[in-house]
Fold:
Amino acid sequence: MSMRELVAALREEKGRTLGTLLGLGWGIFAILVMVSFGTGLEELLQHKAANLGPGIAIAFPRRTVLPHEGWEPGRPVLIRREQVESLPAQVAGLASISPEFITFDRLWAGDRVVRVTISGVAPAYAALRTWRVESGGRFVNDVDAAERRRVVVLGNRVKDLLFGREPAVGRWLQLRGNRFLVIGVLAPKLQDSSYSSEDQDRVCIPATTFEEVTGDRFVDALVYRAGAPGNQAQITRRLREALARSCGFSPRDEAALQVWDTAAEARMRSYTFLGLNLMLGGSAVMTLMVGGVGVANLMFIRVRKRTREIGILLALGARPRSILRGVLGETLVLSAAGGLLGAGAAMLVIVGVGVTPLIEDIGVPRVSLPTAAVTVGLLGGVGLLAGWFPARRAAGLDPVQALTE
Structure:
């Protein structure tokens, strides 16, 4: 049967044909829209999380809860900068680490003043915490640390509050009566998690300078990363053991050194979205299967109405295999039409949302190649399954009996 004849025949069953097309289209629409929006949201959250620092762990010294070598629990864990700097030699597999001193204080630039988070850090902090500096500036380096230079890198919102639209690099500001030279400004970045404050509201100075200016000697956090992403838990255990030896607490006392492992958090987020996509995809597949039932029902009606025609073809020498292929071909054409209808509507929604401000909160919906391939495969599978039984019935008709109906 030609395409024109097929269209004409389906027009005779307008209600059933329209319902079948809408059922298939809704199934494809649901799969593409739900999975693409899930992919967009997952990528947005991954990007925001990576801007805190990809695969890092952040350890916070707290108080002991276990007795150790005669010491009662409840002692504060005090870690010096030098102890942190010695850890790479003690912990095999530790790729990078930076001590971090944290305080809140006021910065002065002329008659403007802001209260911000001040972090005293090592040069490695920039790569660990993705502190990308705008063009024309730089982060603190080894020379700054060795010479205890009065230099500062501003979070981008701190820069705006102090200097507005004017360039900040090369300008001077005051911190605790000391003049600091601005050497860099953080490039704006998305961030959905933080500690103390978001990076845009934070400023960084060399850890050695922080000690000299504030008089603090004990770090508030340690930021580190394992050489291999899968070894983060093992590195954390070794790091805790090394610090337990030098600081005098039990290596089994996890409360003494509380660790925020972003790598473990990323794995959990990945598993969560996998489960969500499977759930959403499963419900969409069920919708598509309902559309397949509609296709099968319509094709059974088509076969029944064409019984005499099929009988004549068989009497004239047509092979059952050709009848089978013909009915399956009609089913696949009908399935493809419904699929194109649903895919077209889905792409309109996906593209439309992708150019709105909503993407800042839900990400950019995206149809991945695997999603498209699976969707096409599901549509083809549903079409073949829906058409197989009507096609077998048509191919198995007895010509004599078919001609008498």
User: Anything to note?
Assistant: The two ends are 21 Å apart (CA to CA). The chain has 15 helices and nine strands. The chain has a mean pLDDT of 83.
